[in-house]
Amino acid sequence: MAIERTLSIVKPDAVAKNVVGEIYSRFEKNGLQIVAAKMVQLSQEKAEGFYAEHKERPFFPALVEFMTSGPVCVQVLEGEGAVLKNRDLMGATNPAEADAGTIRADFASSIDANAVHGSDAVESAAREIAYFFAEDEICPR
Ligand code: IDP
Fold first, then answer.
1. Cβ(103) to ligand 1 under 6 A?
2. What's the ipTM?
3. Nearest 5 degrees, angle CA 116-CA 117-CA 122?
4. Ligand 1 mean position to 51 CA, how many Å?
5. Looking at residue 115, what DSSP letter applies?
6. What are the per-10-residue average pLDDT scores of the chain (141 residues)?
7. 136 C-alpha to center of ligand 1: Å?
8. pTM of the prediction?
9. Cα(94)–Cα(105) distance, rounded to whole angstroms?
10. 120: Cβ below 6 Å to ligand 1?
11. Which residues does the UniProt record annotate as the domain Nucleoside diphosphate kinase-like (predicted)?
């Protein structure tokens, strides 16, 4: 399988719960390397731009409000099949439907506050990584 990069966000609920390290540990234990990382407080404009594809959805205002409610940790994960591997580790969007042992099953409390974001395809990963990181901020080993 190809080495890929994916964009991951630890959302405000999980940062507030102090489980950033536990979530990073799951990435590392499953063959994903953190090759870029930063903690940021998203502005409304930055959050709206990130979720622009959901602009017309009824949950969009609540999603932007939630994503700007506190700091997030944004990271680039690299590894074999990183996009799908990260989605598997995250679990379903709605934590009530997430498989046991996934990040969302263990740390998320609702579909709104669902602990993590992960790119859903290699193409969206490239766009999302460039939205947060300059090329010289990414440090592959
Ligand atoms: P994903 O994060 O699992 O890729 P998406 O469908 O891309 O899910 O939705 C982006 C985010 O929007 C979700 O993580 C969740 O926080 C929020 N969201 C998605 N669907 C709903 C919904 O039906 N109600 C409330 N929030 C939603």
1. no
2. 0.95
3. 145
4. 10
5. S
6. 97 98 98 98 98 98 98 98 98 98 98 98 98 97 83
7. 30
8. 0.98
9. 9
10. yes
11. 3-140
9 bridge partner residues: 74, 117
Ligand 1 atom closest to Cα of residue 51 = 10
CB-based burial, 32-47: b 16+ in 10 Å, e otherwise: bbebbbeeeebeeebb
Instruction: Give the residue from 79, 78, 74, 101 showing the smallest Cα distance to 90.
Output: 101
Q: What are phi and psi of 40, to 5 degrees?
A: -140, 150
Residues serving a catalytic function are: 117
Q: What number of residues does the chain have?
A: 141
Q: Tell how far the Cα of 112 is from the centroid of ligand 1, in angstroms.
A: 7
**Cβ(35)–Cβ(138) below 8 Å:** yes
Written as six digits, the tokens of 118 are 């992960």
